[in-house]
Design goal:
mainly alpha, globular
């Protein structure tokens, strides 16, 4: 709950009255559906069916399945006239997404679920907003505000409380 409050502080920019004026669109609803799908995936990841598979083999199966499921959509976009990247810079950006945001992050999460279980590993998903803040400040030059600091400290407090050994809940 403490981590969730920290995320809310960051998302609402430290102003709870923003909840009253917040409106949802289809992208928000799709994000909620994606989060629920991710939760289901995390629970299924450490089930009886996957217990005997090494993390690398499971990762390969999931990645191949994802590629096969997305291939028709990629083909449709290409046939509809979507342009392929034309510069080395664009391909470098794609390579960074593939290596860091996909391969390393995804396989690291799978390893965490295999070692710690879905409930403990998923607690670290609360770090996404603090990472987003950090990247926005470092890469995009966004200003670092006091609500960012309060939200990040609250998220980190929640993570420590949730993962501290022997902590009575």
């Amino acid at each position: 709950m403490v981590g969730f409050i920290g995320v809310a502080i960051i998302v609402l920019k430290g102003d709870i009255t923003r909840l009253a004026t917040t409106s949802f669109n289809w992208g928000d609803l799709m994000f909620i559906a994606a989060a629920l799908s991710w939760a289901g995936y995390s629970v299924l990841l450490k089930g009886r069916r996957t217990a005997g598979l090494p993390v690398s083999a499971l990762f390969a199966v999931v990645a191949l399945s994802g590629a096969l499921l997305l291939a028709p959509f990629a083909l449709w976009e290409f046939l509809a006239g979507a342009m392929m990247p034309r510069s080395w810079s664009a391909w470098g950006g794609i390579a960074g997404i593939v290596v860091f945001s996909s391969l390393l992050a995804f396989s690291g999460y799978q390893y965490g679920v295999a070692r710690l279980g879905a409930s403990t590993a998923s607690v670290f998903m609360y770090l996404l907003p603090p990472y987003g803040v950090g990247l926005a400040v470092l890469v995009l030059g966004e200003p670092f505000e006091i609500y960012h600091a309060i939200g990040i400290l609250t998220v980190l407090t929640g993570l420590v409380l949730a993962t501290a050994p022997g902590f009575k809940r």
